[in-house]
Amino acid sequence: MSNEMKTPGRDQRKAKGTMGEQAAALYLEERGYHILARNWRCRSGELDLVAKQKGTFVFIEVRSRSGSKYGTPAESVTARKITQVRQTAAVYLHMNGIGDAPIRFDMLAVQLTGEAAVVTEHFIDAF
């Protein structure tokens, strides 16, 4: 998409997503997670955050909301999204030569208020 085709709403949504992911990464780092990748992409999709905690690879889906109009962050994770994240994680593991390592899928809910982003929930082993 060319720059002139982008809409202000899309740019604002992307900025909010980035703010939420930054808050999520800081939250995890403060709890001993080592962030390995942010917004890792391949043909099957994107991984918001990839981290390692005590020998376990953790794939983190970050869901940000500025209000409750569209439901909770947890409600926004569909079966299709779960499948996509799992498939993309498999590609990540394969491309990085990671074999029989323990893995886990977490989800972080982030509340956006003005210029602030706060992690409100951390679902460990969410799916």
UniProtKB/TrEMBL annotation:
<comment type="similarity">
    <text>Belongs to the UPF0102 family.</text>
</comment>
<dbReference type="InterPro" id="IPR003509">
    <property type="entry name" value="UPF0102_YraN-like"/>
</dbReference>
<protein>
    <recommendedName>
        <fullName>UPF0102 protein ACFQ5D_01330</fullName>
    </recommendedName>
</protein>
<dbReference type="InterPro" id="IPR011856">
    <property type="entry name" value="tRNA_endonuc-like_dom_sf"/>
</dbReference>
<dbReference type="InterPro" id="IPR011335">
    <property type="entry name" value="Restrct_endonuc-II-like"/>
</dbReference>
<dbReference type="Pfam" id="PF02021">
    <property type="entry name" value="UPF0102"/>
</dbReference>
